[in-house]
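Hi team,

Filling in the usual template for the complex we talked about on Friday. All components are listed, including any nucleic acid strands or ligand strings, so the model treats them as one assembly.

SUBMITTER: L.P.
PURPOSE: interface mapping
COMPONENTS: two
RESIDUES: 566
SEQUENCES:
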Amino acid sequence: MQPSYHQAVHRFALFLVACTLLLLIAGALVTSNEAALSVPDWPLSYGTLLPPMVGGIVFEDSHRKIAGAVLLLTLILAIWLWRAEQRRWMRWLGLAAFAAVLGQAILGGLTVLLNLHYGMPVAHACLAQIFFGILVSIALFTSNWWNADHARLDDSGSPSVHSLAFLNAGVIFLQVVLGAGFRHKDIPIWPHLVGAGAVLATVTWTGAALRRRFEHSREMRLAGILLHSFFGMQFLLGIGALWSRMSTANAPQPLPVTIAFTVAHTVVGALLFACSIAVVLVCRRLAPRIREVAARTPEQAALS
Amino acid sequence: MKARFWASLACLSGLALVLVSCGKKEETAENAPAGQPAATPIDMSTVGSVSGAVKLEGPAPKPKKINMGADQFCASVHPGGGATEEVVTDASGDLANVIVYVKDGLGNRTFDAPKTPVELDQKGCMYSPHIVTLMAGQTFDVKNADQTTHNIHPVPKNNREWNKSQAPGAPDISDTFAREEVAIPVQCQVHPWMKSYIAVFKHPYFAVTGANGSFDIKNLPPGTYTLEAWHEKFGVSDQTVTIGAKEAKTVTFSFKPATGGD
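RESULT (copied from the run log):
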C-alpha cells in the first residue's frame, strides 16, 4: 500500500463526508419545508434538469442535484478503492457505499412516486444515516492514524467496551428510526422520547467506560468527549425542535424557527450516529479482543 | 474481480429500473373508472328543501398571516402578505366555508353525476374556491391563473391519491373521484400555505355556506334525514330533519371555537 494513495483517498473520503453532510442538510430542509412532493416527477424535475426554482421546488431540486453529485463522487471512490486498495474488505466497503447511495436514490424516487407512502420516507431517512456511517468509516480506515502502529490497550471491564460501543451505536440507530417515524407522522412522539432516554443511558455508560478504563489513551478520551458533546447538543436541539413544533402547530406554513431546530436536530443526529460508529471502530482498533489478536496471521495483521 | 464489480453494478441498476417501473404501474392501475348503477327516479312534484345558516358562537380566531416571500409572483400579488381562509366569518358570526350535506336518509337511491365539471382555480397563490363540492364521477378541473408553477396534491383516504404539476398557462388538469369522501385535503407543496378541501358525495344534496353563513339544499324527496355540517377547523355537527312533500325547512347549525386555541 502506498502512503500517497492513503493520503489522497483519505482526503477524497473526507471531502465526500462533507458533501454528504451538505446532502443531509438539504434533505432535512426538504422535509422541514414540507416540500418533498413539490416536484411530482422523478428522476427529472418537471420533466427537465432545470425546473422553475420557486417555493418548495428550490429545496427538493437542490436536494436532488446535491444527491446526484454525491452519487457520482461515491462511484469514483468505489472505483478508486476497487482498483487501488489492498484490503479486500475495503474494496467491498467502497462498493457497499455506492450500493447504499444508489439504493438511497431509488428510495428517494419511490418516496416521490408513491406520494410518501409505504414507509418510503422513513426508509430513505434511515438509509441516509447508514450511508453516512459507511463514508465516515471509509474516511477512518484510510486515515494515517488507522494505518499507523498503536500500542494495544487492555480492556479489563465488563461488559467489554466493544459490547458497550456496539450497543450504543445500535440504540442510536434505533432512535434514528424512531425519530424518522415521528417526523414522517408514522408513529407518535412517545417512542422517540423513550428512545432519547435509552440513548442517554448508553451514551453515558459508553463515555464513562472509555474515560475510566482508558484514561491514558488520548483517542479513547476524545471519543468519549465527542460522543457526550454530540449527545448533549442533540438532546438540547431535540427539546428545541419539540417546543418549536408544538408552539407553531397551527401556523399556515413551516416557520423559520421550526425549520432551523428540526434541520439541526436531524443533522446532529446523523453526526451522533456517525460518531458512535467511529467509537466502535476506534475501540476495535486500539483494544482488539484477545481472541481476534490470537487468531490473526502476520499477513492479516499487516493488512488490517 | 473487475467482472464481479461490473456485474454487481448491472444488478443494482436493473433493480432500480424494476422498482421504478413497479411504482408507475401501480399509479396507472388505479385509474380504471368505477361502474355506476342507473339513477333512481325522483318525483319532482313532491320534493322539498332545507335551508338555514351556520353560526360561530363566540369570538372568531383571527386569520393567520401568510408569508409568501418564497415566490416573488405570490408576494407581488399580496404585497402585505396573505391571510388564511380556514375561519371566515362576518360581523354577526355567520360562518362561511361550511359543507352542509345529507349524511343519512336517502336509502338505496342512486344519482347521476352532473356532466358539468367543477372547477378549482389557483389565483394569487390561493385556492379558489376554498371548498369544492362535487359528486363521485363528476369531472373536476384544476386551473392555474397564476404566473407561477403549482403542484396539486389531493390527499384522500378513500379515493386514489395523485400529485400533478401545473405550469403557468398549462392546460387544465381534469380528474374524477370515484368514492364519497368528506373531505379530501388538497395541498400545494410548492407553496405550503395553499390548502383547500374537496368533498365528494354520491348524491346531489349538499351545499357550502357563503359569506353570510347561509346554505340551501333543494329537491329533497320527502323523508327523514340526518344533516351534517362539516368545518375544517371546528369539526362536525349533526341534526335530524323531516321533510314533508313540498315542504321547506330551516335549520341552524352552530359551532364553538375551541378554548385556548388561537
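MY TAKE: Residues 256-286 of chain A form the longest helix (31 residues). DSSP finds eleven helices and no strands in chain A.

Thanks, L.
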